[in-house]
Amino acid sequence: MNELLKISNLSVEYHRNGRKLRAVAGVDLTLAPGEILGLVGESGCGKSSLGKAIVGIEKPAEGEIRFNGNLVKPLDRRGRPTELRNLQMIFQDPYGSINPRRKIGDQIADGLIVAGKPKNEALKISAELLEKVGLGASALDRYAHQFSGGQRQRIAIARALAASPTAIVADEPISALDTSSQAQVSNLLVSLVQEFGMGVIFISHDLSVVRKISDRIAVMYLGKIVEIGTTEQIWNQPSHPYTRALISAIPKADGNSNMPLDLPGDVPNPAFPPAGCRFHPRCPLVQVGCESSVPEIRTLKDGRGVACVLQTSNEIVVPLETIKGR
Ligand SMILES: Nc1ncnc2c1ncn2[C@@H]1O[C@H](COP(=O)(O)OP(=O)(O)OP(=O)(O)O)[C@@H](O)[C@H]1O
Ligand code: SF4
Ligand SMILES: [Mg+2]
């Protein structure tokens, strides 16, 4: 595969109250040009930590990220090195991520000026970018408070585009928006991917949103990727018990009701992850040994990766009858 991003054995740790919290625990991922990779999982599973590490905002405890073959080093005061300028992040909060005291045009122009463009040219390009994301050039001289949440997220996208990104990590870019703005902003992202051939890692806790725009989906649980495959595979034939439970929880009109599974309990505290398979205390299909041995991610015949002892081939080893009534 022609890889834009290659993430190998990536871990992110925080230290809280003298205790180590491993928010991301050994993740491998790739992203190709023109691909949208959805990253889903419940709140606190480490999606944002992974996203921030990918763009150099968080320092990995282990592992590495390569962007176009270049090692992504944690950002320092000098900002983003030239070879990483085309790797950008869009944050969840369209209110917090835009400076309320500076004109929108100046904020978008910043990235262009850093890249060596004279200010007047940078402002001209900023106006074009604002047009591209569906806001007029009149937005240049306005301030953040004059825009709605959906419009601010378009501004954040325009600002990211100013760096001519070839890869974008979009962390819950639509979850703070109302339903119609959600559709508009996700359609905008898809059209930009089609126009510019960027790769996008699209982070969301909502599988039904992710499946509408993603080519592939990675499912994360307590710091680990438990299943990764094409959107078709994940949505229509989820394999890992956690993926199946997530899909079962989606209302029938939207979700796939094959092989429904319950998802009991809450996500455990990542400072005290369960031994063995981290999902075992909640897994409706838990087996003897799941509490002690860690399932490695394995590639099945259909190409997807799954980290579960039950998946030895494309067939689900546990007969469906045994699931009934659980
Ligand atoms: N700066 C930090 N310091 C200490 N702990 C942190 C920090 N950032 C995140 N964490 C913890 O790391 C874990 C993963 O957090 P993260 O924000 O990556 O999850 P998430 O999947 O993005 O969640 P959400 O869907 O709520 O945004 C959580 O337990 C969180 O409390
Ligand atoms: S390894 Fe065991 S506990 Fe983990 S998901 Fe598979 S069956 Fe469930
Ligand atoms: Mg998050």
Automatic annotation (TrEMBL):
For this chain's UniProt record, which GO biological process terms are given? peptide transport; transmembrane transport
Coiled-coil ranges per UniProt: none
Q: According to its UniProt record, what is one Pfam family this protein matches? A: oligo_HPY
Q: Which CDD domains match?
A: ABC_NikE_OppD_transporters
Q: Per the record's keyword annotation, is Transcription regulation included, yes or no? A: no
Q: Which InterPro entries match?
A: AAA+_ATPase, ABC_transp_ATP-bind, ABC_transporter-like_ATP-bd, ABC_transporter-like_CS, Oligopep_ABC_C, P-loop_NTPase
Q: Which UniProt keywords apply?
A: ATP-binding, Nucleotide-binding, Transport
**Per its UniProt record, what SUPFAM superfamilies does this chain match?**
P-loop containing nucleoside triphosphate hydrolases
Gene3D superfamilies, alphabetically?
Answer: P-loop containing nucleotide triphosphate hydrolases
The residues covered by the ABC transporter domain are: 5-247
Q: Per its record, what are the GO molecular function terms?
A: ATP binding; ATP hydrolysis activity
- Report if keyword Nucleotide-binding is assigned: yes
Provide the family line.
Answer: Belongs to the ABC transporter superfamily.
What protein name does the entry list?
Answer: Unannotated protein
Organism, as annotated = freshwater metagenome
